[in-house]
């Protein structure tokens, strides 16, 4: 069997286009554009690239972007004061503080300071609790995008055995919650799991969010399983240079799985598309405008 390759780029482009249409409707109804504030502290090159992509996507969606670039030595009090100002600003519907923050700043204090109803990243403990309780809130963008891809290839998830490898608050745990809400039987594996291969072999759905290149071997995959590879790892390319690879040995898994996301071009592009979706939904909630069903075409939670 050769797996269906799940085209995350195409899915993300389609979602971004649906969000742009929905935003145009919101602007007419509300008389303003949704606003997304992005806060970047320091010069981390990867973070700068992400922030640039987010700004571009925000403009393309027809939303207002508010970029706050602060020097690496910005103190926690100053950052908290900025978050307070953004919380109080009626033109700001979503606040995203780019992680990682410099070590002298308590990231959890900053995240917790964001108004949960503007927390479009879904990292605030209130939104974590809402997800766990099945209440509307904001779902973190990477697991949300992963679920959208998964639902597209496996519309009937109820009863399936799913394994999520990784238990971070950003990907693994919320992904497990989403799959549980879909009535999957969920195993969460992590670095202390005794027999990872056995967990994966049982699974109809495998979500790998680890950060170890090629950790999940092709011969672990159950024939026909759906594989969502969240990992993004830069490795050396044979013959020089570097390349991006996932947490799954793609070449080995592609002959066994039913469907698989490539890296790059799988989950990655969905993250920013879901951020746009969350910012738009936030604006709708804040102004009492009905959310355009097309941004939730795949049964989006949160
Ligand atoms: P973290 O480092 O926060 O978490 C990694 C998890 O993997 C931990 O729970 C850890 O277990 C577990 N783990 C580590 N080694 C093993 C192992 N050998 N076997 C089983 N589990 C293991 O990473 P993130 O969740 O932030 O990110 C995971 C990956 O996803 C990274 O490659 C990252 O780049 C990528 N990513 C991609 C995004 C996208 O847009 N596509 C967005 C965010 C992340 P333990 O808890 O026991 O330490």
CATH homologous superfamily of the largest domain, by name? Answer: NAD(P)-binding Rossmann-like Domain
Beta-strand share of residues: 15-25%
Which runs of at least 5 residues are low in confidence (pLDDT < 50)? none
What's the CATH class label of the largest domain?
Answer: Alpha Beta
Helix content: 40-55%
Number of separate helices: 10
Record field, number of beta strands? 11
Bound molecules: NADPH dihydro-nicotinamide-adenine-dinucleotide phosphate
Describe this structure in words.
The protein has 302 residues and is α/β, with parallel strands linked by helices. It has 2 domains: 30-116, Leucine Dehydrogenase, chain A, domain 1 (Rossmann fold, 3-Layer(aba) Sandwich), CATH 3.40.50; 141-268, Rossmann fold. Helices cover 40% and strands 16% of the residues. It contains 10 helices and 11 strands. It has helices at 8-30, 45-60, 76-88, 107-113, 125-133, 141-153, 172-181, 196-202, 250-253, 268-287, and strands at residues 4-5, 35-41, 64-70, 94-97, 161-165, 185-189, 205-208, 226-229, 233-236, 242-245, 259-260. A 6-stranded parallel β-sheet has the order 1-11-8-7-5-6, sandwiched between helices. Strand 9 and strand 10 form a beta hairpin. Helix 1 (8-30) runs parallel beside helix 10 (268-287), helix 2 (45-60) crosses helix 10 and helix 6 (141-153) packs across helix 10 (268-287). Bound molecules: NADPH dihydro-nicotinamide-adenine-dinucleotide phosphate (NDP). Residues 142, 165-168, 170-172, 189-193, 196, 209-212, 215, 230-233, 267-268, 271 line the site of NADPH dihydro-nicotinamide-adenine-dinucleotide phosphate.
């Amino acid at each position: 069997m050769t797996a269906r390759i799940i085209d995350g780029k195409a899915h993300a482009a389609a979602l971004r286009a649906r969000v742009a249409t929905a935003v145009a409707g919101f602007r007419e109804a509300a008389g303003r554009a949704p606003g997304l504030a992005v806060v970047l502290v320091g010069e981390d090159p990867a973070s700068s690239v992400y922030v640039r992509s987010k700004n571009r996507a925000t403009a393309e969606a027809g939303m207002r972007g508010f970029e706050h670039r602060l020097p690496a030595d910005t103190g926690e009090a100053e950052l908290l004061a900025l978050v307070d100002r953004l919380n109080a600003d009626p033109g700001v519907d979503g606040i995203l503080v780019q992680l990682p923050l410099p070590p002298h700043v308590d990231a959890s204090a900053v995240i917790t300071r964001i108004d949960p109803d503007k927390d479009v990243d879904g990292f605030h403990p209130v939104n974590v609790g809402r997800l766990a309780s099945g209440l509307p809130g904001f779902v973190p963008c990477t697991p949300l995008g992963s679920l959208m891809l998964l639902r597209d290839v496996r519309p009937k998830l109820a009863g399936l055995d799913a394994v999520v490898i990784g238990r971070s608050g950003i990907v693994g745990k919320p992904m497990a919650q989403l799959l549980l809400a879909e009535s999957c039987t969920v195993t969460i594996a992590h670095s202390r799991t005794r027999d990872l291969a056995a967990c994966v072999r049982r699974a109809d759905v495998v979500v790998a969010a680890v950060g170890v290149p090629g950790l999940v071997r092709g011969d672990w995959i159950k024939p026909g399983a759906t594989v969502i590879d969240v990992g993004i790892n830069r490795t050396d390319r044979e013959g020089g240079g570097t390349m991006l690879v996932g947490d799954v040995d793609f070449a080995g898994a592609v002959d066994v799985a039913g469907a698989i996301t490539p890296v790059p071009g799988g989950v990655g592009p969905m993250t920013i598309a879901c951020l746009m979706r969350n910012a738009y939904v936030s604006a709708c909630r804040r102004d009492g405008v009905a959310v355009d069903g097309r941004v939730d075409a795949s049964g989006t939670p949160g």
